[in-house]
Amino acid sequence: MTTVETEPATEGAGTAALLEVRDLHVEFGTRDGTTHAVNGVSYRVDAGETLAVLGESGSGKSVTAQAVMGILDIPPGRVTGGQVLFQGRDLLRMREEERRRLRGARMAMIFQDALSSLNPVLSVGFQLGEMFRVHQGASRKDAKARAIELMERVRIPAAAQRVADYPHQFSGGMRQRIMIAMALALEPDLIIADEPTTALDVTVQAQVMDLLAELQREYNMGLILITHDLGVVADVADRIAVMYAGRIVERAPVHDIYRAPAHPYTKGLLESIPRLDQKGQELFAIKGLPPNLAHIPPGCAFHPRCPLARDVCTSEEPPLHRVSGDGEGRYSACHFWRETLDG
Ligand code: SF4
User: Fold this and answer.
1) Closest Cα to atom 6, ligand 1: which residue?
2) pLDDT in the model for residue 46
3) What is the mean pLDDT of residues 59-76?
4) Main-chain phi, psi angles of 205, to 5 degrees
5) CB within 8 A of 223, min separation 6: which ones?
6) Mutate to test the pocket of ligand 1, among 313, 316, 338 (most ligand atoms within 8 A of CB)
7) Atom of ligand 1 minimally distant from the CA of 337
């Protein structure tokens, strides 16, 4: 086993990040005991960059995003440690009123389920226009004109005719475009998109993802893309952080991950992606289930499911090792990262 340099708080240390999450810890009080949802997560996102945060349900990826946005349900949730630096200021030490002003204006979130995120009894034009009325004091007429502009920007056909339509009158893909328009309205510096295409069919998924990537480049925003699907991030992400049981287990530039993953969990996720050249063959699935976060296994939390697990894995938690010195570097929380890379 080779142990190399362990992780710095985040890559690119020394330069100011748009967002830097440092050693974040989040817990939930439940009847089953304390759930350790986020256990020392660190990552950074720069302007114009896309970070994909990947993991199965319950890995802590969405809870981390909620803590960053300040929309965690408190109680039962609570942030028990760490920092969330946005443009150099720690959001966790900011007054709620100030954080509320930042949300929407400087940082925005796109959720998975547009139908439940939009108000069903208000037209989409009204809901888009409200961003300009509330945040910028725009008149109703001006707000409506800007709502139409935004709808055109996200390529809603016949936007001027559809501005008075209600959310249920749009298809799932169009509703998700409206959610993107709402997030973009005030030209924020950072967007967090939480499984933005999960509810859509594959073709629409690709269109929405392409649109999001195009707008992110055009507005030079930082984008955090939360997903359980490694298949959707290849063309849009710059870097990937893979989460398991509330920790980052691999962090690397996207091309490194696809070329040769350095953690058995990432490798399993990659092998689970359906491939056209394997038509008719049984799809690979990582065995077992993610752990109950109130009872995380000792040592490496992935050991009960890992094909490479050995004795040391059941007792010693692997730190996030730096496994490559190129560029921003890549990191793996596996005692046997070298074997995984070579395999
Ligand atoms: Fe598997 Fe051990 Fe690596 Fe964990 S530390 S991923 S159990 S080989």
Assistant:
1) 334
2) 94
3) 92
4) -55, -50
5) 45, 49, 50, 51, 190, 191, 192, 193, 212, 213, 216
6) 313
7) 3
Best residue among 300, 337, 340 to mutate for probing ligand 1's pocket (most ligand atoms within 8 Å of CB) is 300
34, amino acid identity? T
For residue range 37-62, what is the model confidence (pLDDT) as tens digits?
999 999 999 999 999 999 988 899 99
pLDDT tens string 203-255:
888 888 888 898 899 999 999 999 988 878 888 899 999 999 999 999 999 99
Q: What angle do CA 233, 71, 215 make, to 5 degrees?
A: 35
Ligand 1, residues at Cβ distance < 6 Å = 263-264, 300, 302-303, 306, 308-309, 313, 318, 334-336
Q: What average pLDDT does this structure show over 176-192?
A: 92
Indicate which residue's Cα is closest to atom 7 of ligand 1: 303
CA–CA gap between residue 26 and residue 215 (Å, rounded): 31
pLDDT score, position 112: 81
The pLDDT-based confidence of 86 (bands split at 50, 70, 90) is very high
| pLDDT reported for residue 138 | 93
Query: In the chain, what are the domains?
Result: 16-274+283-342 (3.40.50.300)
CB crowding 43-54: b at 16 or more within 10 Å, else e:
bbbbeebbbbbb
| C-alpha dihedral (199, 201, 204, 210), degrees to nearest 10 | 70
Q: Best substitution site from 306, 317, 341 to test ligand 1's pocket, by max atoms within 8 Å of Cβ?
A: 306
Atom of ligand 1 nearest to the CA of 335: 5
**Separation of CA 317 and ligand 1 centre (Å):** 9
Nearest to 224 by CA among 243, 202, 207: 243
Q: Which residues contact 327 (CB under 8 A, 6 or more apart)?
A: 253
Across 145-149, 268-272, 275-279, 331-335, least confident range: 275-279
